[in-house]
Design goal:
Layout lengths: L1 H6 L2 H8 L1 H20 L3 H32 L5
Length: about 80
């Protein structure tokens, strides 16, 4: 009785249907770990590129927020 209820549960179906995703993520993480062991200096470049992309994204976001505030400030002037 318990097995029929458990095996037919939608959460269990969702977890078991996505085993290929878990497998591919696991292989990717192992490959990245081996790549970093072989080329340890590459981790610095990866982190630097991530920080650079995040910085550019934040500057663009700040500019768009500034422009939006300037655009909509005229709507709230009394």
């Amino acid at each position: 009785m318990f097995q029929t209820i458990f095996w037919g549960h939608p959460i269990f179906q969702m977890i078991t249907d996505s085993w290929k995703n878990y497998f591919s993520i696991g292989l990717f993480l192992i490959a990245m770990a081996l790549f970093i062991f072989v080329f340890p200096q590459i981790i610095a470049y990866l982190i630097a590129s991530l920080l650079l992309a995040a910085g550019i994204f934040m500057l663009v976001l700040a500019y768009r927020a500034f422009r939006m505030r300037k655009e909509f400030s005229r709507w709230f002037e009394f």
